[in-house]
Write a structure and sequence with these properties.
Elements: H1 2-12, H2 29-34, H3 40-59, H4 61-69, H5 74-104, H6 112-126, H7 144-147, H8 150-178, H9 184-213, E1 218-224, H10 238-251, E2 259-261, H11 278-288, E3 291-302, E4 305-315, E5 321-326, E6 365-367, E7 370-376, H12 383-391, E8 396-401, H13 411-426, E9 430-434, E10 440-442, E11 448-451, E12 458-464, H14 472-476, H15 479-505
Parallel strand pairs: 1-2, 2-3, 7-8, 8-9
Antiparallel strand pairs: 1-12, 3-4, 4-5, 6-7, 9-10, 10-11
Helix pairs in contact: 1-3, 3-5, 4-5, 5-6, 6-8, 6-15, 8-9, 8-13, 10-11, 12-13
């Protein structure tokens, strides 16, 4: 079990803000060692312990959110965090059970083990609304050469490579300690694959940079209001909040044709409904003469029943609404309660309005022929959301978020690490306006060009460019997963036929 805990710790420390992505390349070696002579049932236990160790470290911030803003006791916050960590640990447990099963049957693990981890990671990201928070690939968000392959194979392809390297390193070390022969073929194939990946990353970066050179600059101003979450919805402070955004916006007006972008729910009232504060926002767009994108809640009332939406608005320079986007991918137990009819005793974990209703689809906001794909907060962790915008010819991705919920925990840094991949997968600029940070401009190579500190009242002003660069991932999504699943099925079928043939001949 100590080896399982060690692997869990190494996985945790592969992610920001406390870790380094280098650790991910050997984090699974202790786990594979622990599974050396384990049967499937024991492998399940080992994997669960490793997963629980990792996910408690990665997700500890959930306890903070629940206690600070759900006003629940600390023990309740810890219990809920442990429940989620335990659920996610099941995938690590099934992985280890699978590894033990493969070894027990004498199956080769060189390719099947990385495929197994990757397929399970995909299932985790989609099952029960999905929770792809800090899957293994995201640990590499600062590895510029490596992450360029995300425009071909997405994050799951990067995960596969990381696990593959772990397997080969373990097999090499195990052979050396046993006095056996090193797996020369495995080492050769892996080194060749890494060489191809890094060469692709190098030349693809040069290609994208050349494409950007020929495009005109568009200035953006990302306004980080740093509004305290405890007063954000207090009507006594709403006018003061808008004064903050007004002052910051007019102090840093981008050049002609530029954009001003505010965070999620920057307007803490129902913008579409009559309110004296509504005119203040329209006035900012008119005075600045620039397009304004900002977040605000809204509701629709039918038969006396209100339906709430978490929305983003585009105001043209004349102060008129040019478009609206309603958040599609809502946060379970934060913005709505899944299966409320079956479990009426379970409520939302943070205080706020009633359940939100999801929007109808990912439709870009359009201004002067330019198409902006808006991802509200949590949506940026889902590759399919950004892909949907790319397929609808978005010129830029806009992530508006309110990470004040997270305080100074690791969550804002983790959130940013995932946003980086959406830019690379679709070869688009991604601009990120966060209430308390981290606001940033991310270029199509995944480089964070400008960024803020946490809890800083400031404006990020910088340049973006619009390019129409096709990517295999944007067009076909997670094709690698489907291929990997087919390979696993075929592999098991072949192994079964071999075993049956051996029994008949024995």
């Amino acid at each position: 079990m100590p080896m399982a805990v060690l692997s869990g710790l190494l996985i945790f420390f592969s992610f920001p803000k406390y870790g380094n992505g280098i650790l991910a390349w050997f984090a699974l070696i202790p786990l594979l060692h622990a599974l050396q002579k384990s049967k499937p049932a024991e492998g399940f236990k080992i994997g669960f312990i490793a997963g629980l160790t990792a996910h408690v470290g990665i997700l500890y911030w959930i306890s903070y959110v629940i206690v600070q803003y759900g006003y629940l006791p600390l023990y309740t916050g810890i219990f809920i965090m442990l429940l989620l960590a335990a659920y996610l640990s099941l995938y690590t447990a099934f992985f280890c059970m699978g590894v033990a099963f493969l070894r027990f049957r004498g199956s080769p693990v060189f390719l099947t083990v990385p495929l197994l981890w990757t397929v399970l990671e995909y299932v985790r990201s989609h099952l029960l609304t999905g929770f792809p928070w800090e899957t293994l690939a995201y640990s590499q968000y600062l590895n510029k050469e490596l992450i360029q392959m995300a425009d071909v194979v997405g994050t799951y392809g990067i995960t596969f490579v990381i696990v593959l390297v772990n397997v080969v390193l373990y097999n090499t070390l195990a052979a050396r300690f046993r006095g056996g022969r090193s797996p020369a073929a495995e080492i050769t194939v892996t080194l060749a694959l890494l060489a191809v990946i890094f060469l692709y990353g190098h030349f693809r970066t040069i290609q994208i940079q050349d494409s950007l050179k020929n495009e005109p600059n568009v200035e953006v101003s990302l306004v980080q209001g740093n509004i305290d979450q405890n007063i954000k919805w207090d009507k006594r402070f709403q006018e003061e909040t808008l004064d903050v955004y007004r002052s910051l916006s007019l102090q840093s007006v981008p050049a002609e044709g530029g954009l001003i972008i505010w965070p999620e729910t920057a307007a803490p009232f129902y913008f579409e409904h009559p309110d004296p504060l509504r005119a203040k926002i329209m006035d900012i767009a008119q005075i600045s003469g620039r397009t304004l994108i900002f977040g605000s809640p809204r509701y629709e009332e039918k038969n006396g029943i209100k339906s709430y939406m978490n929305s983003a608005y585009l105001l043209r320079s004349d102060g008129k609404i040019g478009g609206r986007y309603d958040k599609v991918h809502l946060v379970p137990y934060g913005e709505y309660v899944p299966l409320r009819q079956l479990f009426p005793f379970i409520g939302k974990l943070v205080v706020g309005v009633g359940d939100f209703r999801p929007g109808k689809g990912f439709e870009p906001l359009i201004d002067q022929g330019r198409r902006f794909g808006v991802l509200i907060c949590y949506e940026v962790i889902f590759p399919d959301a950004a892909r949907a915008y790319k397929q609808k010819h978005a010129d830029m991705l806009v992530n508006i978020t309110n990470d004040a919920w997270f305080g100074t925990t690791s969550a804002p840094y983790q959130h940013l690490s995932m946003a980086v991949f959406r830019a690379v997968e679709n070869r688009l600029y991604l601009v990120r306006a966060a209430n308390t940070g981290i606001s940033a401009i991310i270029d199509p190579m995944g480089t964070i060009r400008s960024g803020t500190k946490l809890f800083e009242r400031t404006v990020v002003r910088g340049e973006v460019k619009f390019i129409d660069e096709k990517t295999l991932y944007a067009a076909y999504g997670d094709w690698l997963i489907y291929l990997g699943g087919i390979i696993l099925i075929i592999h098991e079928w072949i192994q079964k036929r071999r075993r049956n043939h051996a029994r008949r001949n024995s």
